[in-house]
Amino acid sequence: MSARLTKRMVDAAEPAAAQFFIWDSEVKGFGLRITPNGAKSYVLQYRTPQGGRSRRLTIGRHGSPWTVDDAREKAREALRGLALHDIDPLAVKEAARTAATVGELADLYLKEGPSERPNKKQRSWDTDAAILRAHVKPLLGARAVKDLAKADIARFQTDVAEGKSARTTKTKARGAARVTGGKGIAARATATLRAMLSFAVGRGIIASNPAAGVRLFKQEKMERFLSEEEVAKLAGAIADLEARMKIHPAFAACIRLLMLTGCRRGEIESLQWDWVDFKRGLIRFPDSKTGAKVTPLPEPAIEILKGVTRQKGKPYVFPATRGDEGHIAGLSKAWGDVRDAAGMPELRLHDLRHSFASFAVAGGAALYLVGKVLGHKQASTTEIYAHLRDDPLKKVADTTARKIALAMRKGETRRA
Length: 416
Description:
Elements: E1 2-3, H1 7-12, E2 20-24, E3 30-34, E4 40-47, E5 54-61, H2 68-85, H3 89-98, H4 102-116, H5 122-140, H6 150-161, E6 167-170, E7 176-179, H7 183-202, H8 228-243, H9 249-261, H10 265-269, E8 276-277, E9 282-285, E10 293-296, H11 299-306, H12 331-341, H13 350-362, H14 367-374, H15 379-382, H16 390-415
Parallel strand pairs: 1-2
Antiparallel strand pairs: 2-3, 3-4, 4-5, 6-7, 8-9, 9-10
Helix pairs in contact: 4-5, 4-7, 5-7, 6-7, 8-9, 8-12, 9-11, 9-13, 13-14
């Protein structure tokens, strides 16, 4: 039998000698199952994306928390995932039952999460994977997901901040991977854990998110802006190291471009010749942290790029210095040599981007335009540079006040 399921219809349904179904006319495959003993459950009948095998998902028993409207919406979500991402809802439910520990949930989240959030960048998923591997699994991996409480999440954040997950792991003959603590990474790790637990709620593994309501540590702002004198020192250090062959020319060019364009490190490292438009003076990035964007290419940056030899058969402006594929790697070490030579050991590569913006804003450029150059999607992101407008604003105020004061003095002179 088929009709639009309503609460009145469900409440009125009486059991029979054999199990039977009332199918919903609004959502295909959604229905109510009534057993001989009177138990009423909402179900979804569907076919698998591979093979077209008929399967039946039990959404839940009628009553708290499942109303007919909630169950119908759950059926819609399952069918949407089936149609858009080939996600078999019954397979997901079965997999969820195996995610008994936080470690198992982390594996499921990294495997199935990207299909549910297709707009999230792969690099963000890579970061999540690194955080879960470095902090969440060591501290909470063996814990049962269903046993986690708000206090456990708060304690996790404190433990990461205090360095309880910090360690150094040998990676190569001379390499090492370092996991550090601190409030910044603790807040980031807790946010990642909260997102994973939200995923668990959506999959029915847990009823509510124990991380909800846990206040993250306030992260200190790390903006560092170079002065003109510091820019000169940095440029001198690059030139000196390059002349003494202590730094590869490609790394020197990368750092100079970061200083002159305000681009992100990854954008310059992976820059391809096909993206560069010398005639119009711009770079068309097909993808970035904020999606596809066009970045202006100023003349000094164009001169640097024109000085880079294009290697035949290599799409990258800065191809790997070792091996035949990929783009340049190892910029961090070269940057460490540069900043140490310049006497600024605390300076980060990302500070070059901040500095580009600070020079633009201090020069009187509108925040909106600076945000467009940097590729900011949200105006609030550019607002961190707003205070740098104080100097040019003061100049405007001083100039205006001087004119008014001059007029005032003339009037006072006549009156005298």
